[in-house]
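Let's inspect one such protein example.
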Amino acid sequence: MKINYHMHSQYSIDGEMSIEEACEKAIELGLKEIAFTDHLDIDWPDPNYEFGALDIEKYLIDIEKNRVRYKDCLKIKTGIEVGLQPHVLEEVEDIIVTYPFDFVIASIHIIQRMDPYQGDYYKNRTKEECYRLYYEETLELVKEFSNFDVLGHIGYIRRYSPFPYEQDEDLICLSLIDEILKVLITKGKGIEVNTSGYKHASKTPMPTPRILARYKDLGGTIITLGSDAHTIDDVGFGLDLGCSVIRESGFKHITSYTERKPEFISII
């Protein structure tokens, strides 16, 4: 079953497609189920980017309108991607319990009030120090916060890293990665295979196949698949490759969500 569980519409500050346009493209590509996961990053440190300005009520109404319009050919789920920072967790919790989301991605985009997209995060730090800070922040946040379904794009730090790519850099801070995975598994949370990683020099998803295999070996079972699309051209990007990696890692299913409850879809 072809699904995409990470998509951003124009309701995200960086989204470039309408809900309707994304649905039309998904149908054209033969997708059977999609989840819109527009950004909610409260207190983004750069005032020029209002990632916390999601109009949730208008967003959900638009999704519902298109869910009815395309009900015979496409399942459409209401999701959100919440950015976690230590001081916003209570506010994020309040929003999640207030609205009827099917699916919640928790992501770490800001590390100690720094955006890795901007170069200052990397100044006066080695590659290992940059990775360690990201994974330490991630571990503390997933320990403290629980109202989400999957952790988004593990290894996100490499997306904007200015350091030359090295083949084994996904194994940097491996003990911290294992601790993150163990916390997720203990809490009944999953991870996503984010295929936007195929645009990186590594040509691998986030997380990489080796980290995905570690999640499996540690007892993880919940996997979603998403392209992190912000434009129409990326609605189907890398989904077949991502599904193959999931299968090759030993998983027999991917996961969808309805009203925050996981459902397992065979990929055998």
In short: The chain is about 30% helix and 20% strand.
